Amino acid sequence: MLDIGKKRRVRFTQLDEEAKQRLRTLYHLTSAQAALSIARTGYLWSNDPDGCANFSLNRDLKLHYTTTPEVALTFKFHGEVHLREREVDFAGYAPNTLNLHLKSWPTLYGLEGLRVAIARVAAGTTMHLECVDFKLTPEFIWKCRSDPNAELLLRRLRRQLALGRTVKVPGTPQERQAIEAQTLEEKPDPSWVQKVLARLTSGATV
User: For residue range 144-174, what is the model confidence (pLDDT) as tens digits?
Assistant: First the structure.
């Protein structure tokens, strides 16, 4: 039997301009250290079988994260976008695409009736994804007031994202492993001042 609902479902290109721009704005909620790593390396991926990068369309939605949420990174996607069924089969997508899995489809050509379950940028993406801003969670703002290491992370994150950052999604497990290894090699040891501040904060004697 023909599914009339599916027959009438719209494509992304048929949506009005306001809806398109809203759906191209993505958020990734993560830890401050992970956010800094993304800003430094210019790479982002997930632990899913296909390695795609996962996003939300709601900055405050605390889903799909694996670390303590401290920073909401804001992204813009400038490339090809596909509206898809809610189920994710992890078979992968064409590179350089944004794939929106929907809980419900729009009733017309705007945002009315449209609900997104998850937004996924394909593994192998080398263009179109840009980190444009970030927002701190209230908990991390308080942490920065008393923890010098958190404040240092924040200053470094601001410096890295001052002019925005193009972000890629590695296409293979081997690429992801190489990036992780390079990140570990480049991680600097704490300076003498950082060590002193850390000891003072923890109440230890210098």
Answer: 999 999 999 999 999 999 999 999 999 999 9
Q: What would the pLDDT profile of 16-35 be if each residue is shown by its tens digit?
A: 999 999 999 999 999 999 99
Contacts of 117 (CB under 8 A, 6+ apart): 86, 101, 102, 103
Please tell me whether the overall predicted TM-score, pTM, comes out greater than 0.70 for this model. Answer: yes
β pairing state of 80-84 and 97-104: parallel
What is the distance between the alpha carbons of residues 202 and 206, in angstroms, rounded to a whole number?
11
